[in-house]
Specification:
Elements: E1 11-18, E2 27-29, E3 31-35, E4 39-40, E5 56-60, H1 61-70, H2 78-81, E6 85-88, E7 99-102, E8 105-112, H3 119-123, H4 127-131, E9 137-143, E10 145-148, E11 152-156, H5 160-168
Parallel strand pairs: 5-6
Antiparallel strand pairs: 1-2, 1-6, 1-11, 3-4, 3-10, 5-9, 7-8, 7-11, 8-9
Length: 169
């Protein structure tokens, strides 16, 4: 798959949300510290088990627009979807198992992030169905670093991240 990704264009980080507790309101921030093998500082996942499979969640602005259209709405606030990061201009689902860099941090996209059953109560009847295929991706934080809204989101082709690690050693 990665051999077809050489022309992936860079995206942009548009929004950052932290979930301080399970089912607590999202806290919207302009910047955050991504902690390797943990999560975003201030997010409940960062205090969980080290190396958990779902350290952060990422959704594209384009997916949010599709969800809104599926529900007959003009806009859906990102905090309702409970994802940590919103990016734009990036073919997110094409990057399954690939590495990306946002700000100073490096992430590996690990799995599709399926919507939970609460989306019907949050978005209204049909909310879960509207999100199917548009839930975004789960990711692990490979390298710690600061991220902030407006940062470029770069696809790191195979070997790029690994080569950079060898140079740093």
């Amino acid at each position: 798959m990665s051999r077809f990704l050489s022309n992936i264009q860079a995206g942009r980080l548009e929004w950052i949300g932290l979930r301080p507790e399970r089912q607590a309101p999202m806290r919207v921030v302009e910047q955050a510290l991504a902690i390797a093998d943990r999560g975003l500082q201030g997010d409940r996942r960062a205090v969980g088990s080290k190396g958990a499979a779902r350290q952060i969640t990422i959704i594209s602005d384009e997916f949010i627009q599709s969800i809104a259209e599926n529900l007959g709405r003009e806009f859906i606030s990102p905090d309702l979807l409970r994802r940590n990061l919103v990016v734009s201009g990036l073919k997110l689902n094409a990057l399954h198992y690939q590495y990306i860099q946002i700000g100073d941090a490096v992430f590996q996209l690990t799995a599709k992030c399926h919507p939970c059953s609460r989306m019907d109560s949050t978005l209204g009847e049909g909310g879960l169905a509207a999100m199917l295929g548009y839930g975004g991706m789960c990711a692990n934080i490979i390298e710690s670093g600061k991220i902030q809204c407006g940062d470029t989101v770069l696809y790191l082709p195979p070997g790029t991240y690994q080569d950079r690690q060898m140079i740093l050693c």
